[in-house]
Fold each of these.
Amino acid sequence: MLLNQLLTITIGTIERLMLLMNLTIQFLLERYLKMRLLCKYGCFFKRPWIG
């Protein structure tokens, strides 16, 4: 019985971690793509007045 509860908790934790990882990856990917877009249209970092 205890093993069953432990397994349920572990699986729940793993699912939550995976969800968190997915969100983090999505966030980083979006930021990366936005930076790529900015650099494509006159590098944003070198010429900040082109914004």
Amino acid sequence: VWNVVADGFGNNDPGSGREKGRRSMWDTIHPGRRWATALPNNELSVDEIWEKINHALAGDTTAFLSSEDQLAEAQSDDD
């Protein structure tokens, strides 16, 4: 699950130029790494990340897709 569904496990303090990235899912649901609190929030809320993890653990393979890919798949299902 970690780094497949929820990225960021094992990340180190980003170097120069990478600090503009968003907070990882890991750092969003496991606050505590001081350097991560300086990063902009993740696009997903804590609840959305846990929902994605729970879906993956329940066998829902769409949980392994990026948010953009999940949206595209949902739109194609509507067609």
Amino acid sequence: MVSLRFKKAFCVMYSGLLFVSGIVLIAVSSLLLYRVFHHFDYIPGSTVGPLILLIILGFGHIFLTWLGIKGPTLEYTFHIILFIVFTSILLVTEFIIGVWTMILRDGAPTHSVDLMTEAFNEMIKEQYYNKDFARMQAEIECCGLDGAANYANYFRTDDAIRLSYMSCKDNNVPNNNVDFEPYPDGCQDAFPDYLQLLLLETALMGFICTGLQAFGLYVICSFNRSLKEERSRRARQRAELQRQLSAQSQQSQTLLPQPEIGEVGMVPPPIGISHLASSPENEPMRPPRERPSAPDVPADPEKV
């Protein structure tokens, strides 16, 4: 059986891991949130919710670190119970975030394509340069909705459309024979894959944190159970020690000499110096008292 001291050290190690996971969770969630806002015109707003919750839960990890260290090291039951309660809440919340993100992952690409199609058609119709769409083409490495053919009828006559088309240039293709080679894939195929990967990373963070919380819950519950057993053992030891001390005290009292009871039921005083001083044998000799003589009575003259 694992000792209580080892489990206590394990709880402290887990608390340190929880602190690191909180910092990583805040950093990675913030990075993913930046990627969402970077192309927010073509990403559904519902994808922001899980990432904001993960950032908040990252601070929850850091707060749990304090409870995870103070509770086991000082054996405070109140802090241990709080740690178990908050860990259970985080476990359920992070699992829900993972499931929620996977549900969003199924419907988000369709919504993203609708937003992208609307933006591209508006750009072609109004004939203006859409810098957000151009940035998406350059970073995602795609061109138009279905490919470079979407620009075929416009980039030669309109400068703004030509500028958007120029962001489709594939820099990985050597320009020996051609002056311009666009990306072969359309954005309505490439960008949903990018969005699904982003949501998959968000869901994985939720599920990984769920596993971490489940492990921490097992560790702290195991420590709490061992602590209760240890406290029961200490209580039994104290009770046994008190019983032994009480038995020794009673035994020492029975070994002491008991005073005898006199005829009238009174206990004679102990023989000591004061008793010897007050005994008649030790009193000094006193002269006997003379009895007072009767007074002289004059004789009756008649009897004489």
Amino acid sequence: MTMVRRPLQRQPWLKTIPRRESVGGLSSESDGRGGCAWKGKEREGMAWGATVQGGSDGRDVVGGGCTPLSARVPATNDQPWSIHGGFIRQISFNGTRAVGVNVLYNNASRGKINARKEVILCAGTVNTVQLLLLSGIGPRKDLNKYQIRTVSDLPEVGKNLFDHMNVPVYVNLKAPVSLTLKKMQSIQEVAKYLLFGTGSLSSNRVLATARVNNSGIILFGMASTDEKLLKDIANYQTETFRSLFPAYNDTAHEGFLYLATCLRPKSRGNVTLKSRSIFDQPKIDPAYLQNDYDVRCTHEAINLAVETLNSPKFREFGARVHFPDFEECRHFRQDYRDQDYSECVMRIAGVTSHHPCGTCRMGTDDNSVVDEKLRVRGVIGLRIMDASILPSPISGTPNSVLIAMAERAFDVITERTSN
């Protein structure tokens, strides 16, 4: 079951920071449960982190406001089911009407699944584009390049790609107050997780967030980390990783990590085909920092992270920011207040938040890929419901927005009205 919850245990050093204490010019507002949260209106300030995850503790998405499917769909013999061990090769069309999907199974056999009413794509920002293009929906000139018959000439398919790019800002602590790999791998923590699904191993360590204007930071509550794991996830070279994380080989090192980001970047990338094969991953150009605004915005986010360390409690814990010593940046003053140095660091160390969106933009204009009812333009019986339809960036992680969109999509698709 999917859960929406706050961290199972806030680290003691965070608990000591008063809820309404000014931190770097920011203040946090109580949520009535010993923390703070942003809800509804756009806000500035600090807030405790919350996660959406599986588990036995916390509130599920239904408890968070969504109606369970079982309460909305009448009981019939046509219950949802899934197929494992295969790939959707393309959408099948009869003229311009989507009538099903063509499947390639793991045993190399091929098949077709027919749709009684509609086909709904939920393959994500990258793979939805790939399926559309392979099925003949997209820019005609790109389809002609791979001898794909055009079903609907939609020039914007694969365009408008945006993502949140994070820049790690490493903070050392003198006080032994943070979570370390050594503490996390203790017998007590392992037992908590195996027996009760609780403890530090059950958390993603996103403890708090803050924002000012369009610049945001995430407080990730660990400084020591597994070198191989993070290098693989972030695609860092060894020298880059070790310059960013000076305690990479010290499992007991005290500290934490800020991730600084521009919440609404203006740069736009694209997703295009590499070949006609569904097994060839498409080409992705995220175009990070292509727009100068994103450089300034990210620079402000980095400095927001540094400014929070001037609060009394952070000073008491001996918080000190680390400046990575990249060879390419040594001719700049090693200070995040220097925008040239910050830009140099962000271009080397910037990493995806895994929030790609926008490649099948929804809108009321003729250039949009889907209309306000999620229907793909130029064809019949095909809708999209995933992050690809978002027309512009979300100020933060998009998963909660997508949950709400899916809830609304149910009403739209079944022609019902949600109150």
